[in-house]
Design a protein that fits this description.
mainly beta; four-stranded antiparallel β-sheet; globular
C-alpha cells in the first residue's frame, strides 16, 4: 500500500551470468526465488526468513558455458512441487514444504517449465522439448524442435570465421505454454510452432516475421507474443 521496502535477501554473487532475470513464484506465505548463482531459495513472505535452499548445479562440468549456473526461467509451484531448470544442467522437482529434492534430470535450460496435471513440459537450450512425468521425471516423449531448422551460421553462431568454422546453428526457443491441447513456442528465427501435447508431433508452424525469445501468454482463443523488437503479435 505504501511502496516501503519490507525486507531484502542477498544471494551469492556470480561474476558470469545470463542477460536475463527470473521472477519469484509465490504460494501462500512462501516465496521461491531463483538467482544467478544457481541457488533456488524458499523464503517466508512476511519477513524474508529463509526456509530452505537448493543449488541447481552439476558437480562435473564439461565446458566453460556450463560454469554459468544461472536460473533464468521462473520457478513453477504446482501442488506442493517446485520445478526449476538451470543453465548449469539441472532440472529439479523439490518439495515446497521441506525443500527435499524429489528428482533431478541433466537438462540445461534458460526458460520456464510448464506444469499441467501429471506432466511437465520443458525446452532445453539445444531445442529439445520434453514431456516428463511430474512424480518421477520419466520421459513420455522428447521432440527435437531444431531438427531440420538449422541455419548456416558463423563460428559459435556469432558470424564471421572461416568456412571451416561455419556450422549449423539451431534456433533458440521460448518457454512453452499449453493452450487447446497444443504446446506453443516461438523462436529467435521468427517461427511459432504448435506441438501436440500428447504425442509431441509438430502440427503447425507460423512465421511471425521477427525474433521472439520471451514466452507467450494466452487469453481465450488468442495467443500473444512480444518480439525482440517490441512488436506485439496476436495469433488466433
Amino acid at each position: 500500500s505504501t511502496g516501503k521496502e519490507g525486507w531484502t535477501y542477498q544471494a551469492l554473487t556470480e561474476p558470469a551470468r545470463l542477460l536475463a532475470a527470473s521472477s519469484p513464484a509465490v504460494s501462500g506465505d512462501t516465496v521461491v526465488a531463483a538467482f544467478g548463482s544457481g541457488e533456488l531459495i524458499a523464503l517466508r513472505a512476511a519477513n524474508g526468513n529463509d526456509l530452505w535452499s537448493e543449488a541447481l548445479s552439476r558437480a562435473s562440468r564439461t565446458n566453460a558455458l556450463s560454469e554459468i549456473r544461472d536460473i533464468a526461467g521462473r520457478p513453477v509451484i504446482y501442488q506442493g512441487d517446485v520445478v526449476a531448470v538451470s543453465h548449469s544442467g539441472v532440472l529439479s522437482s523439490t518439495d515446497l514444504r521441506t525443500g527435499q529434492t524429489r528428482w533431478t534430470l541433466p537438462i540445461t535450460g534458460i526458460t520456464t517449465p510448464w506444469v499441467a496435471g501429471d506432466v511437465i513440459y520443458v525446452v532445453d537450450r539445444a531445442g529439445k522439448l520434453y514431456c516428463l512425468a511430474r512424480e518421477t521425471g520419466l520421459a513420455y516423449w522428447v521432440r527435437d524442435l531444431g531438427e531440420g531448422r538449422e541455419k548456416r551460421g558463423g563460428f559459435l553462431g556469432f558470424g564471421g570465421g572461416s568456412d571451416a568454422d561455419r556450422a549449423k546453428v539451431k534456433p533458440v526457443w521460448s518457454s512453452p505454454i499449453l493452450a487447446a491441447g497444443r504446446l506453443l513456442l516461438a523462436s529467435n528465427t521468427g517461427e511459432m510452432v504448435a506441438v501436440n501435447a500428447r504425442t509431441g508431433e509438430v502440427e503447425r508452424s507460423v512465421n511471425l516475421g521477427e525474433s521472439v525469445t520471451a514466452g507467450p501468454i494466452a487469453l481465450g482463443e488468442t495467443v500473444y507474443f512480444v518480439t525482440d523488437e517490441a512488436r506485439l503479435i496476436a495469433v488466433r
